[in-house]
Design goal:
The chain is of the alpha/beta class. It has five helices and six strands, in the order βαβαβαβαββα.
């Protein structure tokens, strides 16, 4: 188990056979989001996802993740969508508005859609905190996002059978 409680495991190969994943990440704070996306993609590959079953795209900022995730989700082409962003607190209320909007938007997609959308948005007080979550002392969130996506893509509701 990691120092922050996330159980770092791999998943059985049968859980990923033929499954398709979309990674959408922001250009804003790209030095952080690219690290997260690379780690996420590497974890998917290490867990048996075929390279041709991983699609990556970018959007300008965190708020745009909602629209892009919805389009990817509604395409019917993916078993899970991973939305990756990084919002760093500044001196204005912008941080609060963006974080609240993105959180509500991704939550809405998950409650109304048939494809899980993984909330991979770092909301941090400083750039250093973001770096610490990209394989530093606070763990590797990109790795965690990928494992979450694999598990959610394989999720089967017992009541639906």
């Amino acid at each position: 188990m990691s120092s922050k409680g996330f159980k770092e495991t791999s998943v059985p190969a049968h859980d990923v056979q033929g499954r398709k994943f979309a990674l959408v990440y922001t250009d804003w704070n790209s030095d952080i989001t690219e690290r997260l996306a690379i780690s996420c993609r590497d974890t998917l590959l290490r867990n048996g996802v075929a390279e041709h079953n991983i699609t990556q795209t970018t959007v300008p900022g965190a708020f745009e993740l909602i629209y892009a995730s919805q389009r990817l989700m509604n395409s019917g082409s993916f078993d899970a969508v991973i939305a990756i962003g990084c919002v760093v607190r500044g001196g204005t209320p912008h941080f609060d508005y963006i974080c609240q909007g993105v959180t509500q938007g991704i939550a809405m997609l998950n409650t109304t859609g048939n494809t899980p959308v993984v909330f991979g948005i770092l909301t941090v007080n400083s750039y250093e905190q973001a770096l610490a979550r990209c394989g530093g002392e606070e763990g590797d969130k990109g790795h965690e996002f990928a494992l979450t996506a694999i598990k959610m893509a394989a999720f089967s509701c017992p009541m639906a059978k």
